[in-house]
Amino acid sequence: MGGDFGPRITVPSTLDILRTSPQLRVVLLGDAQQIQHEIDRVGHVDINRIRVQHCTQSVSMNEKPSSAVRNQRDSSMWQALQLVADGEAQACVSAGNTGALMAMSLFLLRTLSGISRPAICTKVPTLSGHTYLLDLGANLECSAQQLYQFGLMATLVASAIEDNPSPTVGLLNIGVEDIKGRQEILDAAALFKADNDIQYLGFVEGDTLFQGVADIVVCDGFSGNVALKTSEGVAAMIQGLLKQVLSETLVAKLGALFARSALKRLQRRVDPAQYNGASLLGLRGVVVKSHGGATKTGFSHAVTVAVHEAQRDLPSLIEARLTQKSNQPEVFDEE
Fold it and tell me: What's the CA gap between 282 and 112, in Å, rounded?
């Protein structure tokens, strides 16, 4: 129940999902008094499908991951992950400290056999719909094997969640030519090309990322995080410029009035709330990270992502695919 706004956003968002998912049960962890206050304020919920678990600690947004693992074991983040590890919950959703969430997840859940590092994966809007982008910051530097593993896991996400039997994969690079890029990217490209089960398209440049040229775009965590944050900044700038330009003159205001419907559709398509909820792929459990400043709609979307992944038991799907490919030691040597 963390994040920038705490239970006043996370509780109502979760209760909204309960109303539309009759089989769902939730455990709300954090300050029990604050959580109960929000439950009472919202009202009209089936209390038999809700459990409130009090936690005496919290992880601050600037706390170091190692410190959180050692010292914050009665935080809502740790206790939620513990429920997943013990099999008492099928997924964890957190809007808290990303580094701490990753560190605690690794400690409590571990990675799937053959996966050296988890990756943070989310959808980003494109001209043709959306693209899965990973890694978004869990691994600032990645080996060719890790990049390949990221692509493999993301193909299973796209297949299971999107019902896309043959998702396409691209590698984010500084050019589309085969000779460009760091050696690990060139080596990762060779691994993708050698896998007949993956629809590998080749390199994708930053200026085509949001054109939807691939269903999945793979990169290291440094590049992915910069690309994501830059896109969010550009979207906010364009939105601000539109408001400014469309209010400058009477003619512009009239134009905005006539274009109101189209502008609202555009806003919905690029609304960050519709893409909130990043999956920590490669763990022995479903963990979804919500943006700390997510709105009520945004956090609801993160919960929905977790529900869908839990329903399809995504970690088991990934593990089964890894088992099928376990005869490729050059790809699955654990580092």
Answer: 6
